[in-house]
């Protein structure tokens, strides 16, 4: 084995440099002895501190946090938020010891909070508590619908393709994506059929499931080997009488086709909304061509 001492020397130097950065204290180049943590002031008189904006050893973190909490209390701040990125996870137990609680988390960070006013009950927004899923009733020109049997079920079934909506994704785009990922069939949105709302689902969250009517733009099936056991075009009459189709699905498909025949549909329009808080795109569900009886 050949040992490259120059490489080892460089690695040792890099390791020393990284340790020096890690051991920076709040009282060094980043903070003076009298300084407190700085953060962004929100419209509710709260402060958000981001762990990427400071660098502290554990002992100095506790001292600076104590000084910061004292000053924020004197300034009558309400909620103090610490956004702790995963590379700074050492700070989490230190904050917990000072009365900070968990609020929500993402892949790369954890948000912790402490409510300061002793005479006011906290009125913070709840952490995300509802999952959003989407399903698709995909119809072709031969009075057939797209049915799938998924791998994560331990009983015989035929259901409609679908899955969870991703963050920042529109409902119609999610339906197209899920249909294509599971079956290889391209489709386009026609109408919102219905949605169901239930509780105590995945992670203990509530769950909203939106069902959309989609028009097939292709016929060939390329099923997902990861998620799907079987997939096929099934006659509507067969699906609505099949013993392995849930009664709720049978009912919804029948009602959806009845409304389609009567030209009753819920369209989804994307609109741009301007308010004093800024510009935001929203999806509106509007009745079109309605002549229900």
UniProtKB/TrEMBL annotation:
Keyword Transmembrane annotated: no
Domain of life: Eukaryota
GO molecular function, one term: NAD binding
A Pfam entry, by short name: Nudix_hydro
InterPro entries: Nudix_hydrolase, NUDIX_hydrolase-like_dom_sf, Nudix_hydrolase6-like, NUDIX_hydrolase_CS, NUDIX_hydrolase_dom, Pre-Nudix
UniProtKB keywords: Hydrolase
Family of the protein in this entry: Belongs to the Nudix hydrolase family.
The protein's name in its UniProt record: Nudix hydrolase 8
Species whose genome carries this gene: Danaus plexippus plexippus
């Amino acid at each position: 084995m050949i040992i490259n001492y120059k490489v080892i020397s460089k690695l040792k130097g890099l390791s020393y440099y990284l340790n020096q950065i890690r051991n920076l204290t709040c009282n060094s180049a980043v903070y003076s002895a009298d300084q407190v943590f700085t953060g962004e002031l929100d419209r509710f008189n709260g402060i958000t501190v981001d762990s990427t904006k400071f660098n502290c050893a554990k002992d100095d973190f506790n001292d600076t946090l104590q000084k910061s909490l004292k000053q924020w209390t004197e300034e009558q701040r309400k909620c103090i938020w610490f956004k702790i990125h995963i590379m700074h996870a050492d700070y989490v137990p230190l904050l917990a010891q000072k009365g900070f609680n968990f609020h929500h988390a993402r892949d790369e960070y954890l948000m912790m909070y402490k409510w300061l006013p002793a005479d006011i009950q906290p009125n913070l927004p709840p952490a995300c508590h509802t999952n959003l899923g989407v399903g698709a009733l995909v119809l072709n020109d031969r009075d057939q619908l797209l049915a799938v049997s998924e791998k994560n079920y331990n009983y015989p079934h035929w259901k409609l393709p679908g899955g969870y909506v991703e963050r920042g994704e529109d409902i119609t785009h999610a339906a197209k994506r899920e249909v294509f990922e599971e079956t290889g069939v391209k489709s386009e949105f026609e109408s919102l059929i219905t949605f169901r709302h239930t509780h105590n689902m995945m992670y203990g969250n509530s769950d909203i499931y939106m069902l959309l009517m989609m028009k097939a733009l292709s016929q060939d099936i390329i099923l997902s080997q990861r998620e799907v056991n079987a997939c096929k075009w099934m006659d509507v009459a067969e699906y609505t009488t099949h013993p392995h189709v849930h009664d709720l699905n049978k009912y919804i498909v029948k009602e959806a086709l009845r409304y389609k025949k009567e030209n009753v549909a819920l369209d989804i329009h994307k609109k741009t909304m301007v308010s004093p808080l800024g510009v935001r795109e929203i999806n509106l569900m509007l009745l079109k061509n309605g002549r229900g009886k």
